[in-house]
Amino acid sequence: MAYALGLKSSQSYELIELARRRPSDEVLLRFGALCAIHAPTELDYLWKWALGRPFPRRSDLVGLALPDELQDLVLHDLA
Length: 79
What we know:
43% of the residues lie in helices and 0% in strands. The chain is mainly α.
């Protein structure tokens, strides 16, 4: 799982799994993709549980380098 999430070590994954370290947005996006979580309500729940905030919208990620394969998971801002 650590490799699939792009983490450098299994220890990093273990710290996230044990809630001793918060995952980055990119790690959570990869986790959502691996688990086929695409519904906005489910993504919001995952983010609120892991980071204490709603799932990022496109405007929240301005300036961050996000891999192309994860771009489609980011929700568009509501008008």
